[in-house]
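User: Let's play a game. I give you a shape written as tokens, and you guess the letters that built it. Ready? Here's round one.
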């Protein structure tokens, strides 16, 4: 009963959406590289500024399929990364290289 109440009606009832969150995050990053460019909306004769393209696309997906939380999360992650909110948790290249030479990762780098 609790699952149906909290997950059945909110769009969280899809445990795995595959690559859609990653695709939306990547779409945001590509569109924000040149936000003034015009992008065509699927097969429609409508040109939208690239800055608003991911938002318009997710609104269309929501209208057709209902609220899908993982797509909103992908959109949010893309915007957070673009505006630099992940700078605090990024690691240096030297740190990553040092980690790769240690035990659990060493066999994968050879």
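Assistant: Ready! My guess for every position:
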């Amino acid at each position: 009963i609790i699952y149906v109440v909290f997950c059945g009606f909110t769009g969280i009832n899809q445990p795995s959406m595959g690559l859609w969150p990653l695709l939306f995050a990547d779409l945001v990053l590509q569109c924000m590289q040149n936000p003034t460019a015009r992008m065509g909306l699927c097969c429609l004769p409508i040109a939208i500024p690239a800055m608003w393209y991911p938002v318009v696309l997710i609104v269309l997906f929501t209208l057709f399929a209902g609220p899908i939380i993982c797509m909103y999360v992908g959109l949010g992650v893309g915007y957070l990364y673009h505006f630099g909110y992940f700078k605090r948790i990024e690691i240096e290249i030297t740190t990553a290289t040092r980690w790769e030479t240690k035990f659990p990762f060493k066999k994968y780098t050879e």
